[in-house]
Sequence to fold (130 residues):
Amino acid sequence: MAKTEKRRKLERFPKQLDAAIRAAEDKKAVDLVVLDLRNAAGFTDYFLICSGSNPRQIRAIADAVIDALAVQGGAKPHLEGYGSEWVLLDYFDFIVHIFAPDTRLFYDLERLWGNAERVDVDERPRPARG
Fold:
């Protein structure tokens, strides 16, 4: 692991963020990364960044996240870019970025927010579904 890359495990993600991750995973999003911005930025706590292989999959991921969070409590995001190569879903406490691979490389949010801690999505404790 590179010195500049900060990673850590969280005891547990916030419930809505975990639901967003599961929804993205269910739609086969790839390269999921969570950046913990609580010590790096003042406008949100987390970024969930993921990629879809084409515009249809990017929309499907966005729709799945929106639907999953609506079921959990009616949260409605500020939505930008629906139908493009970068969809942004702003839930205030966290922001979901869904990119086409080339667009993700171009904007490189992981590098831009290099002072944020990367959280290992695959090793997160998972709450019981129900």
